[in-house]
Amino acid sequence: MAAVQAQVEAHYRSEIVEKLRAGGGTLSAGGVTVRLAKQFGFCYGVERAIDLAYAARKVFNDRRLFILGEIIHNPEVNEQVGAMGIKNLLGREPEADVSDLTAADVVIVPAFGTDVKTLAEIKARGCQIVDTTCGDVMSVWKRVRQNAADDMTSIIHGKASHEETKATASRAMKDGKGHYLVVLTLEDTDYVCDYIRRGGDKAEFLEYFSGCHSEGFDPDLHLRRVGVANQTTMMRGETEEVQRRVMAAIQERDGAERAKETFRFFDTICGATQERQDALRDMLAAAMDMLLVVGGYNSSNTSHLAEMGEAKLPTYFIRNASRLESRDRIVHYDIHEKREIVTTGWLPAPPLTVGITAGASCPNNLIEESILRLYELHGIGREELV
After folding, report:
1. Which helix (H) or strand (E) holds 259?
2. Would you say 169 and 180 are in contact if contact means Cβ atoms under 8 Å apart?
3. pLDDT over 80 (residue 210)
4. What does pTM read for this prediction?
5. CATH number for the domain harbouring residue 381
6. Does 232 lie in the same domain as 183?
7. pLDDT above 90 for 141
8. Cβ atoms of residues 128 and 107 within 8 Å
9. Rg over CA atoms, the chain
10. Burial category of 330 from C-beta neighbours within 10 Å (exposed 0-12, middle 13-18, buried 19 and up)
11. Considering 114, 133, 152, which residue would you say is the last residue of a domain?
């Protein structure tokens, strides 16, 4: 592992980011000041997943290696994993299929985990499994499995299409007991709460939540006893509001005393996600001209950082430094339209203060490259910064 960690460090470390940390998170040159959030970038779970993937390549150097989708939600890191000859079994462009596996193969489970059906298929083929599932994700699984054992429905606050939520949902049912329902927005939550209070049109409910509930889910039966869980990378405040609204609806229907038996909630927000959100909230309290959020566009926790920034000041969510095309033109991700867009006239002349943060799946070298590009647009080179 020491050799592997040195290799990972060589790929993803950043001299500029280390300088920023040592300088209290602020770097100034040529009238341009960069402020880096106190908490940003790789978390422990992501580092562990990457280390294990690199280690698997070294340990099983004479065997075929596969991975169930992306190791994390960062395209550069996933490209690096692919460059080591680790083939993708799932996702948009799979390079193989589970049916192709043999007992001689090694399969890496990514940080998000995987659903129980896929895992069972791989085990049935006798494959060696390298499980990099984050401990925070597994703590959610423990809660929804307990819900299933107690014949309770898990209302999961998250994105139904997200790998982590799919993995969690698959564990919300066991031995014919337990069900799940995925809610993303407070609007979804209110729809559920209205049904809990007053009932409604079952067919309309199931259509509204199409693709977001367990097979055989019946709102008239399976909303009688519920437990709220969450995708670990959601906004804590929003998950707490989902919990509060569902609890209020259950209490109104059942009474406060009875609700102790028909409602439960556990705080399962990832600590690293919360730390990054808290650090950005602190940074946004200071005067800045704009915010750059660096990371993969399909990263849930990074998207929430962009959402927080948008509410306060001009915010640009970029995959990497290549999106800072010129002082007039930036290509960035619109979290509402879910696509890259172009903004012109985005970069004011100095004096200028730019905040920078990154989600838990973004390596330091990508943060550095974005900082260097920002200064380069103002005629300031790396030598001057270092």
Report:
1. helix 256-262
2. yes
3. yes
4. 0.85
5. 3.40.1010.20
6. yes
7. yes
8. yes
9. 23
10. buried
11. 133
Q: Which of 2, 37, 14 is nearest to 291 (CA)?
A: 37
Same domain, 106 and 158: no
Question: Which residue segment(s) compose the domain that 218 sits in?
Answer: 136-265
Residues forming a β-bridge with 27: 34
Residue 285: CA atoms inside 13 Å, Cβ hemisphere, count?
5
Distance CA 270, CA 233 (A): 6
**E-only strand ranges, 301-364:** 315-318, 329-334, 339-344, 352-358
Tally of domains in the chain: 3
Residue 101 structure tokens: 């596996």
The residues carrying an active-site annotation are 164
Give the CATH number of the domain where residue 105 resides: 3.40.50.11270
* Residues 314 and 368 placed together within one structural domain of the fold: yes
Tell me the pLDDT band of 386, cut-offs 50, 70 and 90.
confident
First to last CA, the chain: 30
pLDDT bracket for residue 255 (50, 70, 90): very high
Total length of the chain: 386
